[in-house]
Amino acid sequence: MLIQAFNLCKRYENDITALDDITLSINRGEFVFLTGQSGAGKSTLIRLFFREELPSSGYLLISGRNVARLSGRERVNLRRNIGMVFQDFRLLERGTVFDNVAFAMKAVERPWVEIKRKVPEIVKRVGLAGRERELVTRLSGGEQQRVAVARATVNNPLILFADEPTGDLDPDTSRDLMRLFAEINAAGTTIVMATHDRDTVNEMQRRVIALQNGRVISDTMGGWTL
Amino acid sequence: MKLSSFRYIVPEAFRSMRRNAFTTFAAVATVMITLFLCAIFWLLGQNLDANAAAVESSVELAVYLEKDVPAARVAELREQLLGLEGVASLTFIGKEEALERMNEKFGSLYYVLGDANPLMDGFSLFAEAPEHIAPLAEQIAALPDVQMVRGNDGTVESLFAFTSALRKADFALMCLLGLAAVVLISMSIRITVFTRQKEVMVMKWLGSSNWFIRWPFVLEGVFIGVLGAVMAAAACFYIYSAVGKYLLQNDLTFILFLNVRQVWLPVALFMLGTGVIMGCLGSALSLRRFLNV
């Protein structure tokens, strides 16, 4: 098991329960959708997965390690094995496509020779070959999201978490992006994607974990279940 | 963290300084003014110390005689003085020669004095060691026909007291201005932290180590400190050399002025060291409170 959650709860100070008794497990190489309406707890669960926040109670194990008990160095190592894609891309606006993807490799202190070799490869893989020198602000929403995917996958993460990555994209662009995710998943990366996009989920026909009011209400293979 | 990562960290620090040019400039200027004033005070103190030490180590006494002492009595006094313990040499200086020497040192006094010569005959006496000066001055002053004896009476003590006060003032000034510099450096870095907050967040998600994130901010503080120190050192030594040249050109060589080559190294090292420390303190202040990595 790559990810195991046991009775996970997340409560905030204002007495709001974002997650309530979540127990689930995700295998290496799976493609899992976390679905649910806004406020169902999808994004909170993703934040716990990449240790942006800690659970109020329960356990979360990634590769067998309790993420709440990781040392500083172990936390860094965990994040180096995780890729993140957000709805609002979160790119460096002043940078080019190359700068943004290279930033991910610089951040984990890869040598410059490797960066120069690998960035064009990954940019090509996400369908932006030859556009490395363009400023990201000049790209369309779909293209910016591809840059975000390139950045998230350039360090070959074990897991890719995506929080509403198609939220701001039109249906055609969403479909292209999902095709890209499927390719990345086929290459061995586990993908956990939070979405409330019913069409995308139905088209992909993968494992769907549905959340409602912070609880898992179904965990099935196939399409949208709510 | 890998050493090779400084390839990414160093340019990032420079980029931050360029992006926040105004606050960087303010911080560099404050460091520069602080260190410049401290160094000027230091150099002034060193020169005063050197002058005091020169006076203190002087073994010369000037013995002035009463008016119109007959030559025979002068010869007798000469024998008496040479007989005193600790006298190394003795030279008679007539009042004409004394006037000549004065004219040489301060320019012609003819327009002030006319043909009159108010000076006295006297002796220039050299003692064997500085510790003989005080007892010799006392004994000679008691001799008949001796009007006065001049040595280093009280000058050294006043000079040392003055340099000591100067050092204290220098230290107080350095503390005050240094504090202002540290606060300005920390503000400059705080602004950089805020402008780069999104980048820092992304770096955390990507798995950057804490020090990889912190180093550019630390270096930014150090660069500000070093830049301020180098500019202060350049300005300080330029002005110091100009003052030295002015004293030489205007024949004010009776003031002992230390050559720039004698003083530059400790002062420059002090400025650089203090600049680096101020930079580090400024960075630490911002990082501890505002960069939660």
Average pLDDT over all residues of chain B: 83
Specify the biggest β-sheet of chain A. Answer: 6 strands, mixed
Task: List the secondary-structure elements of chain A in sequence, H or E.
Answer: EEEHEEHEHHHEHEHEE
Structural class of chain A: alpha/beta
Main beta sheet of chain B: 4 strands, antiparallel
Average pLDDT metric of chain A = 91
Estimate percent helicity of chain A. 25-40%
Large-scale geometry of chain B:
elongated
**How would the global form of chain A be characterised?**
globular
Unreliable stretches of chain A (pLDDT < 50, length at least 5) are none
Instruction: Note the total helix count of chain A.
Output: 7
Number of DSSP E strands of chain B = 4
Total number of helical segments of chain B? 10
Global structural class of chain B:
alpha+beta
Uncertain regions spanning at least 5 consecutive residues of chain B: none
Order of helices and strands of chain B: HHEHEHHEHEHHHH
The fraction of residues assigned to DSSP E strands of chain B is 5-15%
Radius of gyration from the alpha-carbon trace of chain B, in angstroms: 30 Å
Query: Of all protein chain pairs, which has the greatest interface, and how many residues does each chain bring to it?
Result: A-B, 24 and 19 residues
Describe the structure.
The complex is a heterodimer of chains A (226) and B (293). With 226 residues, chain A is of the alpha/beta class. Chain A has helices spanning 42-49, 72-80, 97-107, 112-125, 141-153, 171-186, 198-204; strands at residues 3-11, 17-26, 31-35, 57-62, 65-66, 82-86, 159-163, 190-195, 206-212, 215-222. Chain A is built from 7 helices and 10 strands. Chain A is globular and about 45 Å long. Chain B is α+β, with helices and mostly antiparallel strands and 293 residues long. The two termini of chain B are 15 Å apart. In chain B, helix 2 packs across helix 9 (210-249). The longest helix of chain B has 41 residues, at 155-195. Helices cover 72% and strands 8% of the residues of chain B. Chain B has 10 helices and 4 strands. Chain A binds chain B through residues 50, 52, 72-73, 76-82, 84, 90, 92, 103-104, 106-109, 111-112, 151, 155, and chain B through 1-2, 4-5, 7-8, 198-199, 201-210, 212.
